[in-house]
What we know:
There is one protein chain. The model has no long low-confidence stretch (mean pLDDT about 85). Helix 1 (about 1-80) runs antiparallel to helix 2, helix 1 (about 1-80) packs antiparallel against helix 4 (about 130-150) and helix 3 packs antiparallel against helix 4 (about 130-150). The protein is mainly alpha-helical and about 150 residues long. The chain contains 4 helices and no strands. The longest helix is centred in the N-terminal third of the chain and has 77 residues, at about 1-80. The radius of gyration is 34 Å and the shape is rod-shaped.
Amino acid sequence: MKSFFKLIVMLFVMTAVFIAGYFTGSFRAEKLNRLLASAKSEMTTKVTGLEGEIRTLRFRMRLTTARDRLLTAENDIKERNFGTAEKELKSAKEELHAAAQMASKESGEVLIGLEGSIDGVIEIVHRSDPRAKSKLDAVKADLDRLINRS
């Protein structure tokens, strides 16, 4: 009888230890899961913010590259090198087109308008007309306003 009583007490103690270990372990696992969910949420927010910043930086980089092309074209017009100026203007138009695809609706419409203005400058440069500089200055001013706004 004593050994049976010892066996029952031993089983009760082992069950109590098992249950205590189970709840302690599950509490830690639950805490770890909450911590991981919180970290995942925070990282998702940060990644989304970084993607937005990268998109904005790429947009601004395209605009800046287009502006540099316009400045090069302006120098070529001053030196009466109209063929090279036309190539630079076409490159600037391609950069603006790429930027328009990344831009918001409002900025995209402005960029499409600038592309049309560059087409007008290209036509004047194609005729080797030095008056293209004044039209080019207007396009540069519009692009500068857009760069400063974004």
